[in-house]
Amino acid sequence: MIKVKHLYHSYSNDNKYAIKDLNFEIKKGEIFGFLGPSGAGKSTTQNILVGILQLQQGEVEVAGYNIKHIKNEMFNKIGMSFEQSNLYSKMSAFENLDFYRKLFDVETRDPNDMIKLVGLEGKENIKAGKYSKGMKHRLTFARSMINNPQMWFLDEPTTGLDPAISSQIKDIIKKENEKGVTIFLTTHNMYIADELCDRVAFIVDGKIRLIDSPKALKLKYGEKLVEVEYFKDGELIKDSFSTVFKDQKDKLIDVINKYEILTMHTKEASLEEIFIKVTGRGLV
């Protein structure tokens, strides 16, 4: 669904690139996470893929279309939900969706169904300008689905949402993916990436550091720990032991044999911890 070769982009004439020599492919039906801190090049890349930014250098193909020669038909096949909502503030939620669906040359979904899907029923006649940030985010998310896209671009889809709504949005993403929808997800939230993505790319300073599945990354870079709470001389001690190194294993066995164990469980390295290990950078 997406092919990117030797992609570069600069916002100036001094050869300083926002993204540098990006190369990746996304298969049909895949959820691909594009992960990195603010300023890493996530939005620049996404904006090129959807035609907001002009292609300067490299080759990009989206849904079978060459981005260098964008055709209107491409937009019938893609959906976009960005972190910054760009709704018509003087239109109601229903009017926003009804207006947007008329821009397409393909069969679209019922605006009322989309409003209900994201939990905005009963608020469909309120002007979008009076919506809270989270409600605007949900409406933008609903709008991105209205043309039944084959390729779906999502930028921080759960940002600013409470846990219940966030869970609902993730369920919608999973269900759409089960229908065969390909998803390009940009985020700095490693937890949602770990839960949803088939593969992820780590991008820092405009360069992709690696691409792999979350599971493979954990096997390659992660270190399983055993976390133990135990009493020692009447004091509650919390400690972690690696399962990789022999001396750590020996210490764990020693603690188990000597002290009263309160709790003990294994902990797998998080995607965020692996990101920091691989890139040397945090996600803020």
From TrEMBL:
The lineage of its organism: Bacteria, Bacillati, Bacillota, Clostridia, Helicovermis. It comes from the Bacteria. GO terms for molecular function: ATP binding; ATP hydrolysis activity. InterPro entries: AAA+_ATPase, ABC_transporter-like_ATP-bd, ABC_transporter_ATP-binding, P-loop_NTPase. Keywords: ATP-binding, Nucleotide-binding, Transport. This is ABC transporter ATP-binding protein. It holds the Pfam family ABC_tran. Residues 2-230 form the ABC transporter domain.
